[in-house]
Recover the amino acids of this structure.
């Protein structure tokens, strides 16, 4: 018998992986200044802007590795066991980032060795993020009925943004009445701490609690994911047709389950095919969806929100960051309830143009005290438009646009490009903003947003209402 509660409970567990994705990538926003001040105390090397940029984005190196491995692991281990592995990696990273000296070095003594160990733990967490970012939407996409697949995959993006919002609150409450360090550049990538004594707790302990807080959701995810089923499409690929039919029956009802199983088997006559079987355009569209999702510059806001609001001259950047997170969450809900009604392409095009307007607004108002409110509104518009468009819809399309027989490898390639460009944007933002100014950086993002709209209009197929098996015929017709 068809059971919506069964389907929703499975999806709820899977989207915790998305929550961890958001939590892990955004935890650095509150911890980065305390961490920077901590490593500035090292005696055996000089912790410059370059090294801090590397530390702030080192998890993204792991994300590239994890996403690149995701296709192979999802094909060999299955979607479920790959997600279990991701949960374990999240937990190890959270524990190690909180106590990188454990069993090796004296606590509280910054050094090059400790710097390396800390970043290794962050890379481990990044591998977990990379795996989850590719496999969570793949898992939901393969288990959800076609009529509500877009909505359910969008819940993964909601969980990502919710994870970011949760960690904004967690960072805010961990800091509490303590004072964050104020760091001033003295040139050549070198900085000084202006309030070291007052900010001592944040420098010595605050960042540790922020990273360590992730152990709670990571442990919960690693346990709960053990109780969800494998996806029917993966089970068919390994010859477990009866198990696949049982799961499909619980989700879709007996009659529809037989029809879906027949369609899956017809497109699974071979388990895998060469990646270019359906043409270069198929892979190009998937890659460029990922590239544009990052090249439009959203993570310059998500990762550095407190720093940006501080540079604007706002008195309490963390409070404004939390408020921005609430707005982001609200607009992600817009996508969830419109993606099946309006379709994927209209949301992406409208969102791209709205982001362009917000980016150009920031470019022309940043640094002008008389236009401070307009600048803040422009940043929030820029982020909000991303949240109902490129944030969730990119993941929906990546989860459903590829044919069954190349999905694992194709998703891995697309998501790897996403993390590569995430790393490029994240590591380049602060140096570019300092050297070229916010005017140039946000003007560039605005132009890329316009190009993204044109790309979607001309090349991206609409997948609303189509089954995953329909993708085989769609791309064969475009060869």
């Amino acid at each position: 018998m068809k059971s919506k509660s069964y389907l929703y409970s499975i999806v709820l567990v899977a989207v915790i992986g998305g929550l961890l994705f958001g939590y892990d990538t955004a935890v650095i926003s509150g911890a980065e200044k305390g961490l920077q001040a901590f490593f500035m105390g090292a005696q055996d090397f000089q912790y410059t802007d370059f090294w801090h940029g590397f530390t702030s984005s080192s998890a993204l190196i792991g994300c590239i590795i994890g996403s690149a491995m995701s296709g192979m692991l999802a094909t060999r281990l299955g979607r479920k066991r790959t997600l279990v592995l991701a949960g374990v990696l999240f937990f190890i990273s959270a524990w190690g980032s909180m106590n990188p000296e454990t069993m090796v070095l004296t606590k509280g003594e910054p050094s090059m060795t400790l710097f390396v160990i800390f970043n290794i733990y962050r890379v481990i967490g990044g591998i977990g993020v990379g795996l989850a970012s590719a496999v969570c939407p793949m898992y939901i996409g393969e288990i959800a009925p076609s009529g509500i697949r877009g909505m359910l995959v969008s819940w993964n993006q909601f969980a990502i943004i919710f994870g970011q919002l949760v960690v904004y609150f967690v960072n805010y409450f961990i800091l509490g009445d303590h004072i964050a360090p104020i760091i001033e550049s003295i040139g050549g990538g070198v900085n000084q701490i202006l309030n070291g004594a007052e900010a001592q707790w944040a420098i010595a302990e605050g960042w540790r609690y922020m990273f360590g807080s992730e152990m709670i959701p990571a442990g919960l995810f690693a346990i709960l994911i053990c109780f969800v089923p494998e996806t029917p499409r993966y089970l068919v690929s390994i010859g477990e047709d009866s198990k696949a039919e049982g799961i499909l029956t619980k989700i879709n009802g007996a009659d529809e389950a037989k029809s879906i199983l027949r369609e899956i088997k017809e497109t699974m006559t071979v388990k895998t095919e060469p990646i270019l079987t359906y043409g270069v355009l198929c892979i190009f569209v998937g890659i460029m969806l990922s590239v544009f999702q990052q090249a439009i510059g959203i993570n310059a806001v998500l990762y550095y929100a407190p720093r940006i609001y501080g540079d604007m001259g706002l008195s309490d950047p963390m409070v404004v960051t939390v408020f921005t997170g609430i707005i982001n969450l609200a607009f992600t809900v817009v996508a969830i309830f419109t993606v099946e009604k309006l379709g994927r392409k209209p949301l992406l095009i409208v969102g791209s143009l709205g982001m362009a307007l917000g980016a150009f607004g920031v470019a022309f108002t940043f640094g002008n005290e008389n236009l401070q409110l307009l600048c803040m509104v422009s940043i929030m518009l820029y982020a909000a438009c991303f949240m109902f468009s490129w944030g969730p819809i990119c993941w929906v399309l990546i989860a459903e646009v590829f044919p069954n027989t190349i999905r694992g490898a194709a998703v891995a390639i697309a998501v790897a490009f996403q993390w590569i460009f995430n790393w490029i944007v994240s590591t380049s933002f602060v140096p570019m903003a300092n050297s070229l100014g916010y005017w140039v950086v946000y003007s560039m993002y605005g132009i890329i947003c316009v190009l993204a709209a044109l790309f979607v209009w001309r090349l991206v197929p609409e997948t609303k209402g189509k089954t995953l098996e329909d993708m085989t015929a769609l791309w064969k017709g475009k060869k």
Notes: The CA atoms of residues 75 and 408 lie 6 Å apart. The radius of gyration is 22 Å. The chain has a mean pLDDT of 84.
